[in-house]
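hiii, so i know i said id send this last week but things got crazy w the move. better late than never?? heres the sequnce for the chain we talked about at the cafe, plus the structure i predicted for it. fair warning i was half asleep when i ran it
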Amino acid sequence: MKNNGLYFLTAVICAAFIAGCANLKTMEKAMQSMGMKSNPDPLEVHGDTVSVAITGKFPAKSFPKKASIEAVPVFVHSGKETRFKTAYYQGEQAVGNGIPVPFKAEKAFTYSDRVAYTPEMASGKLELRIHGRQGSKEADLPALVLAQGIITTPYLVKNDDKCIWSKDQFVRTLSYTNDSTQINFDYNSSNLKPAELKQADMMSLGNWMNKAASNPAMVIKKIEFTSYASPEGEMLLNDNLATERAEAGKKAFMDLAKKMKLTNAPESLFAMTPKGEDWEGFRAAMEASNIEDRNIIINVLKMTTDLQQREQEIKNISKTYTEIQKDIFPGLRRCRILINYDLQGYSDEELVQLGTNNPAQLKYEELMRAGSLVDDLGKKASIYQAACALSNADYRAFNNLGCVYYMQNKMADAKTNWSKAYSMKKCPETANNMGIVTRVSGDRKNAMTYFNEAGSAAETNYNKGIIEIQNGNYSGAISKMGSYKTFNSALAKLLNKDAGTAKADMDASGDSSAMADYLRAIICARSGDGTGVGTNLRNAVQKDATLGEKAKSDLEFRNHKDQTNF
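okay and structure toks below
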């Protein structure tokens, strides 16, 4: 990169190389009369670097034609030095590679450079060191102090990254159907057979009805009697027979309820659904059977749509039809009892109570919902731990447990659980949360990779904004943080030279921490509000006494030293 001029370089010309002007007073006087500025003063950290920009001008007839200058800014700190690049200037007849300066004309110049910031540079000063040559003569000018110290306000960034919680899939009301009961009938009959009423499925229905009657969480929505006739004989007769079998099924149900002394269900719950001839059931039974000609029968069903013709063709296969009458048709003469009901889940209050005191009683989705309802972080962690321990636990429980640990500032535990969740499923919330622990550990590059993978949720964009602050892209940070009003959004706006909106964000943030008061004091300092500086610094020190010493050396308060006497 091409070297630019330093504002102080003309001093060398005027002092060291102009005949009769070699004394220090003349050099210093020349330096001070050239309108040169160092920007900023004090220096500032910006994206982990410290930049300096210097402007000035060489007056006409100030730079000897055969003179040359080397000038370098040096930041002196803790007994060490950090050097910026060297600038080279030379007169119009000098030999070398410096930037030429005309003798008769005025020449403006600029200089800029940056160096990496390290914590040991927190306090120090920026000096200008100049070495000049003219012919066989060389001279070093006394070091000139350009700026005092470095402002490190960008390092106030808080770890308030926004984690993304996984949502539960809890459904409070679940709908079920009890379809385990079937009553069979004899050929061409709708009479209830005593033996049928003693079958295991009827006994099981009785037990179910008893449990339903004593369970307030179970709400019966409909009791349906779906009945059929085997596909043989006259169709109209079979339709009527199916209707009669539905009525018989209802009677069997009512008799059973009466025997068990259960409250009669309102008539509106009952639904009669006679289906007539059960050709679909016949097809399924044939496909599942071992009847030798079953493929022929199935092909007849596919190719023939006329039901009477279909029945006749099947009868024509006489041997097979005998098997059908024996093995298939009896199972189709039936009435199915279907009970549609809702099972009401725990209320939110019950979930909180059980999740807190007896989490083992809850299922996975119930635990996930309970965890979302509890505010106490310790209890919240216990609930998600119980969810993680279940055999059907998925990534969501580990992700949410990681969120709890993050809120408790237990970063190692948060990382363990977020890493587990991410390994189980890569999705926006797990990628976002992996980005958080990666950024907090200091790896901003890989953190941004995770955040980009996560997408553009408001939380993720906010987290990207934090990285933009650390990278020195303050306008980008403001754009990413959107509508959030937080310590970091205020910091970004302050660093972007907008103290007014920074103050508004702090007012809206609700942050009452010591560091929040400290940032408020900086905002006041940049706004010229000395009273506000004092008030907020006293509040900050009252909450955290260590901030008193920090304020005394913080160059943000260089114009308000009277407010740092605690």
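btw DSSP finds 24 helices and 16 strands in the chain. thought thatd interest u
miss u guys!!
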